[in-house]
Design brief:
Layout: H1 7-11, H2 26-31, H3 35-55, H4 60-90, H5 98-120, H6 137-154, H7 167-190, H8 200-220, H9 226-244, H10 247-250, H11 264-298, E1 305-306, E2 309-310, H12 313-333, H13 340-362, H14 368-388, H15 395-428, H16 434-438, H17 440-455, H18 463-485, H19 495-519, H20 529-538, H21 542-555, H22 561-568, H23 576-596, H24 599-603
Antiparallel strand pairs: 1-2
Helix pairs in contact: 3-4, 3-5, 4-5, 4-6, 6-8, 7-8, 7-9, 9-11, 11-12, 11-13, 12-13, 13-15, 14-15, 14-18, 15-17, 15-18, 17-19, 18-19, 19-20, 20-21, 21-23
Length: 613
Amino acid sequence: MTKKTGKLNIFKRNNKKNDTPEVPTFKQNLEACRFVDAGKQLMIREDRLFALKQEGIGSKMKLVEEEEDSEARLAKDYEDLLELVMRTLESSLDLQSAEEQEVLKDAVHAVLQEEEQDTRWEGFEEKGRPPWRPRLCKQNHEALLERLVHKRMEEAKLDSSVEIQSSMQQSITSQAKRLKEDLLKVVTWVSSCYPEHENVCQFYATLYHNIFSAKLREVAEYTLCDEDCILLLQWVNQEYPNILNVIKIKEVIDYTKLDPLLPEGMITPLEQQFLTSEKREVSTHLHKILEREETAWKEGALPQLRDQVYCCLQAIDVIQCFHGHVVNTQKMLGDETKAWNITCQMSNFLKDFERFHAKVIKSRQTNTEAVLMVNQSFLIQCRDYITKNAHLFPEEVKTDCLSLLTTMTERSQHYFTSNMHKELKDLYWKVGSYKWLKDSHGVCEELLAKLIKYIQKFKNLDKMCCQELLGGMHKEFLAEYVRKMMKRKIKLSNKDQQQMAASELCLNSEQIHTCLTAAGSNMDWLKDILPKLAELLKLQDPDSIKLELVNLMSVYPDLSDRHISAWLKLKGNLSSLDRRKIRESVTCSKDQIKEKSDSLQFSRSFFSIVRIK
């Protein structure tokens, strides 16, 4: 290829006005960059010359001289034309005006015109066709563009304003920047110069893609530090797809037809290295968070208050750390399921947290209750996070995590409800006694006053945690209330006593529900339990009692024979035979009731925690 002349000389058309109607000569067309017209003139001469040659017109000597002379001139003109066409094509990515676009378009069509002329000569023997046929202009055009792209990628430089330390990173980033800029040039300036069926955008994209891929493969052959490993994965799964998804590029390039930037044999070790590094980093961060909490607890520190609410820093730190690494892994590896390799760290962390939690429960330090309250908030927030982001976890890891969280939550709940029962122990005995029968309102009021005093310690808990904790205490308190009623300290021997006891139960139910929901419990469904039990006391007809029991069991499938027997014994005027018949009838209906019960009813189990002997 001869030395490239100035761009303006290539693209400048000669638009001088000519008063004469003469057809431009080949030289004039060439100077004006009218490559298609110039090419047509040469093809006419080519057809005439070789037609004369084949037909043998004129004297043999004269024909030979004319042919040799014309063939040489024609060959030279073709060289001049194609040299200028190729130089124009070589400047494809330097277009800056509509005029330059037209010149490039003419050069492209001149190449395609030459390709057609090659096709016309395909059936001729070598001696019967011009010695320059086939010219293979299209093939040469593609090779020229490949050299052009390669040169531009090799010479790509990063802006001096961008601070990147690694030379490898500089090289990759500069090539990617050049790739994006040039593809946008192709889409904006070059594509309209080619017929649509030539799909020039895809051709350029393939060239740039292959060179960029070769660069990344060259880097991947070396043993890389974690930082460089991350860089490569970032380009493969994030940065490069982002370039291809630029709207202008995405509309004209089918990236599915491009080979992978890195083959599987290279990408797999990089992914494994990255996952190992991420797992180690997540584990280290989570361990530090737990270590910080355990140290603070041992030193007797109280949780921080923010707006008079305990601030659960470990929940914020653990969830942010974990979620950040999982999402980053998904983006880095381009596959959600590959990030599952990281999520097992949550299960490992919760097992460590469970050991810490158990130590806190067993301790007698002054900050134990406060730490357990914050831990309860942490457990609830983790549970909600895992439930809402179940897709981030493999099924076995999710199940394991939720099981650990449930176990720890129940232990915390048990710790506080046990203390609640200890506080109220000296008052519980009055429930279901003759004193209760005379003044149930006073007995219940006394109990609730002491309970409210006890639960004041939870005033610094966040709303969600407080609701759940007080909801559990509400349920436990009511269960103990029912259990005390079933201890049969009183015997309601007639209808009037039973009616009165039923009324008192309903009044107590309203007192308990109003008090505990006002305190923060969200267990609204508990308000129906005492009224339903009261209804059993009011009924006198055994068949009506049977029907009511069946209805009660349909709502609370965990109502057992022992519960039924204990409650019926409060009715002193019900014979042993009637009680036995009622229990037998209800037992027959039990299996059918369980089959019809839905999941909501099972989730509202109550009587299973009413423990009677």
